[in-house]
Amino acid sequence: MVRIVEVKLTLKSPAILAERRSASGFLGAFDYIPASTLRGAILTSLYVEGKVDEDTLSKEDMKPSLIASPAYPLSPKGKSRPASPFIWKCKKCELNRVLEKSEECDSEGGEDKKDGAILDQEEKFIKVIYENALLEIPSECREGHRALKPLHPELIPEPKRVVTRQISVGINKSRATAVKEMLYSYDVIFPPQTFWATLLLPEKYELNNRFEVMVGRGLSRGFGLTEIELQREISLEEKAEEYSNHIKGKTVVLFAMSPTLQGGFNPQPYPRTVNLSKIGEQLGLSIDGALQIERVYGKTVRVRGGWSLLTNTNRPDYYAKAQGSIIAAKVEAQSQKDAAKGLAVLAYHGTIEELNGFTITGVNMLRPALEVIKDAS
Ligand SMILES: [Zn+2]
Hints:
There is one protein chain. By secondary structure, this protein is an alpha+beta fold. Helix content is 21%, strand content 37%. The protein has eight helices and 27 strands. Strands 1, 4, 5, 6, 14, 15 and 16 form a seven-stranded antiparallel β-sheet that branches. A five-stranded antiparallel β-sheet has the order 18-19-24-17-27, with helices on both faces. The protein has a four-stranded mixed β-sheet with strand order 2-3-13-12, with no helix packed on it. Strand 25 and strand 26 form a beta hairpin. Helix 5 (236-244) packs across helix 7 and helix 6 (276-282) crosses helix 7 (336-349). The chain is globular and about 70 Å long. The protein binds zinc ion (ZN). The site of zinc ion (ZN) has 6 residues, from helix 3.
């Protein structure tokens, strides 16, 4: 049997979540923890604690059964998530606000005020897609400025964090001496920083309610120590019941919590069909259904494949629609019950893709869009 949980992650030491590796170091800092990074960190921790053996670990590489979502930051306002393509920021309004603020001495509870520079049409546009009506993309803000910048796929609310670039001298490991003129730089994210994510895993993996993992780069130097706390169990049956309300006729509008719809090595159109029966099978559930993708609204991005623990190599990069993309689809299923169950499984399991002999997880995690924009979990 599988178990689905929501977890909270807390950085206990500075972390290096590099977007890219260059000759001079690890540069750029993801503002979230990629799904493959989190999954690898948890598997390693389970192995170190003796909860899974080497055999299980290598099976996980070929036939993954532990699936992690990307971990997005928690902010005082709650869970952040990627912005869909239907929310913009007006650069002119933002500039005006900054100027106003510097003039004002006593601001009146400005913290809680809605950000006037944001033009949020997510709910409206998702409803329009359900009705199969035409989307009229706005070209100006409420004040009439033609200075709208899409927020997709940045995170909302924007996470506050401290990132600094560290430069260190290269050390020759065998002689433990500094290497002349070798400077090494890396971008470091500092605690306190918290994230939220979901995990799907076999019950036999026995997670503690609180445990530690190491994420990112520089682990041998103490970077990336992260505490994971279980927050709550998520019931597939309850989710299926909720999701049933989001299927209108056969139409469902979904929100991509992860990179989505395999693009392969070259940007290419998304697949037309997601086989829900096959995903159910992987979890030992009998579901008769498929999702027919009609349209995807979102940006194509190149996704870093990340490090493969077992082969000690980088997985290949691939193209996908960015997290935060909106997907219009039809569910073809034997019954409404199967359709809803299939969607619930897809939300927390996503699909498992294969690229060049590597398995890719943490993709195609799609959830009913109206649910996500109200509460990310
Ligand atoms: Zn404006």
